């Protein structure tokens, strides 16, 4: 992610000796080229000196001295040297010309300068990482993190049931729980927040998102199996002073997002973020008598502080408060109704969450090492019911990570990041009458070694050991290799292990919108999997623009896994440990090209081959698409005052869960379907407006709620979801941005 | 609400296409001016681009910090080169009008950096 940019300070001192102003017109010009090395002015041997626009030139000698003949066509003399800024001097007939070149300064910052490309794959990072920046986030209505993946080929977004509006993402064809969700580079939104966590991060607050596929770095824990998704918020010391976003959809959903930052001094800054969303209309297009979309009220407040000492010390902290209420179910349902089977079926989920985090870093000057401390604390309270099922819980999470980075030699060939971490999770959940308690405390140690002998090769090897209070000690090895064969071709391979302690109920609570009861043992499974991957990125120069092609393959192989078995029993859903094989293969091909000036096209195709052993048989994972195709088009006019975005998604069909002896078995496969989104944005100096439509073809899943006419009967199931529940949706919005005055 | 949002989206699309079509109209009254400036970073390029694209009459634009040049194409009658130069100076940079030839030389040098 260290995206180096050359930040070149151009300050050139020109020393011109004006000793002879006559009779030297055709004489050769003499001079010396200087540079500063350790604040000493030294000659630059081998520096290039040539006349602008010509091939007439010379090279400086061992002391930096040179002679050059005057040129007929131009009087602009250019000086250049590797590692220094090139300079141009106008020659006015002087006999000697001396030049002092400035050294290039390389800033070690994670800065994204690409303004045209909203998404791109890091060429430098050894871990296959896709960066999604603000430009891409503006291409969709993008109300929250889950929706910001709509234009992304790697991440699938789908609903987990027809009632709660809970969204799931899938990476490499596997559930989102197997990819670690992070905010500001620490694991977040786990446990009780799993199902709705993605909707807790408003898109307009984000600066960028990084999606890394396959084994991730061991620094952030043992949990990531298929990859990592990291969301970075806008920073208080950033350029943006004020941002205001108002969004409304034709169904009556409104959203307000706003953030503003205040620079209290050169070193201290703070930023406030507000998010409010409200949707209170009862929308039902199909005839099943259930709301298509839950009614939602959400408020989210966030305050950030940042202090930079200027001498290597940095501290960054923030607090979040969130409250959300969701109501879904039959159209006649009201929250104040008594809960019995003669009243309409209803679902209500209320979440309240408090979070505080602190990150501190110190860079030891001239010692080539740094120290970073990341801590985070959350408290989450949840109360819900799904028809007659009542489910509630509360959870405390604490996370701490201390990382020490050491560069072992002068040229940064060897680097070592080591540290210690602690994760504590305490949760009490109650489902109907039974209670489930989770008590996890996991201290860990880790070390990651980076070997970077040249720009071409990077090797990353990490190892961590964690000491779980229930599952004992487990070891996580991970390995990455990146080889840039040429400037345009890079290869990556990775392999690594991951573990997870699934929260059986919290992660699958949406299954309660179903007549069958959940049959599960307590939280006593430690999921364990290997992930292997390889990818190739090639840029081919076709005309002026490069065509970028990437091909990748990832395989995840589970040693132990929590399996959701909807097929063995007609009266229960079993949540059990894997007995047999379980794996996922993901093959993806992606092309990006600027077909016409300012018309960018991205096309991608992925095959998901996900199999699990369910009821002693190795079968395709139910409700998982066999493939996904994506085409996105982005067109901007010459000055980028207008922008058009168009996305087509092709979703492959897949298998339905089959229940022995049930009438639902008539259909064994769900069909493939196509979705289309489009958006127009008009930019003004300080604001922009946008309007668009989601699901233009108005495609919805047939019968999202099974047994809808008798929701308290045995045939009721709102969790067999494979396609969209909501039809075409028009939306419009406005964004206002004011920047801080630049110096 | 429903109708209002739908109406807004449709009119936005309509205006967009109308603007695009209008942009294809004759370019005879377009003036190109070249400046040598004193920008020293990528950020300045971004700042200047964002500033200029919303200036009156500006139809095309190329701000390049490496060669320190700014090329502006504008509609005559809607703006003047003096006014554009004033804008650059107001942002804190130099604005010396140069010829197309000088501009091309500077651009070539810029790519070598």
Helix and strand arrangement:
The complex is a heterodimer of chains A (743) and B (113).
Chain A: E1 5-7, E2 13-17, E3 29-37, E4 40-43, E5 48-51, E6 57-59, E7 65-68, E8 76-80, E9 87-90, E10 96-101, E11 105-107, E12 119-121, E13 129-133, H1 134-137, E14 155-159, E15 167-171, E16 174-175, E17 179-183, E18 186-187, E19 206-213, E20 227-233, E21 240-249, E22 254-263, E23 268-279, E24 295-308, E25 313-329, E26 346-364, E27 369-386, E28 389-407, E29 414-431, E30 434-451, E31 457-468, E32 472-484, E33 489-500, H2 504-508, E34 517-520, E35 527-542, E36 545-560, E37 562-565, E38 572-577, E39 582-596, E40 599-614, E41 617-620, E42 627-636, E43 642-651, E44 654-655, E45 669-670, E46 673-683, E47 687-694, E48 729-739
Parallel strand pairs in A: 3-10, 17-20, 34-38
Antiparallel strand pairs in A: 1-11, 2-10, 3-4, 3-7, 5-6, 5-8, 8-9, 12-13, 13-19, 14-15, 15-16, 17-18, 19-20, 21-22, 21-48, 22-23, 23-24, 24-25, 25-26, 26-27, 27-28, 28-29, 29-30, 30-31, 31-32, 32-33, 33-35, 35-36, 36-39, 37-38, 39-40, 40-41, 40-42, 42-43, 43-46, 44-45, 46-47, 47-48
Chain B: H1 2-23, E1 30-36, H2 42-52, E2 58-64, E3 69-75, H3 81-90, E4 96-98, H4 100-112
Antiparallel strand pairs in B: 1-3, 1-4, 2-3
Please, could you describe this protein's structure?
The complex is a heterodimer of chains A (743) and B (113). With 743 residues, chain A is mostly beta strands. Chain A folds into two domains: 5-107, Carboxypeptidase-like, regulatory domain (Immunoglobulin-like, Sandwich), CATH 2.60.40; 119-739, TonB-dependent receptor, beta-barrel domain (Maltoporin, Chain A, Beta Barrel). In chain A, the strands form eight sheets. Chain A has a 22-stranded antiparallel beta barrel. In chain A, strands 12-13-19-20-17-18 form a six-stranded mixed β-sheet. In chain A, a hairpin with a 2-residue loop joins strand 39 and strand 40 (599-614). Chain A starts with a strand and ends with a strand. The model of chain A is unreliable at 1-25 and 105-117 (pLDDT under 50). Chain B is α+β, with helices and mostly antiparallel strands and 113 residues long. Chain B has one domain (26-112): 2-Layer Sandwich (Alpha-Beta Plaits). The radius of gyration of chain B is 17 Å and the shape is elongated. Classes of the chains: A mainly beta (743), B alpha+beta (113). Chain A binds chain B through residues 5, 7-10, 52-53, 74, 76, 78, 80, 85-86, 88, 113, 115, 248-252, 637-642, 644, 680, 682, 684-685, 689-693, 730-732, 742, and chain B through 1-3, 5-6, 8-9, 12-13, 15-16, 19-20, 23, 40-43, 46-47, 50, 53-54, 58-61, 105, 108-109, 112-113.
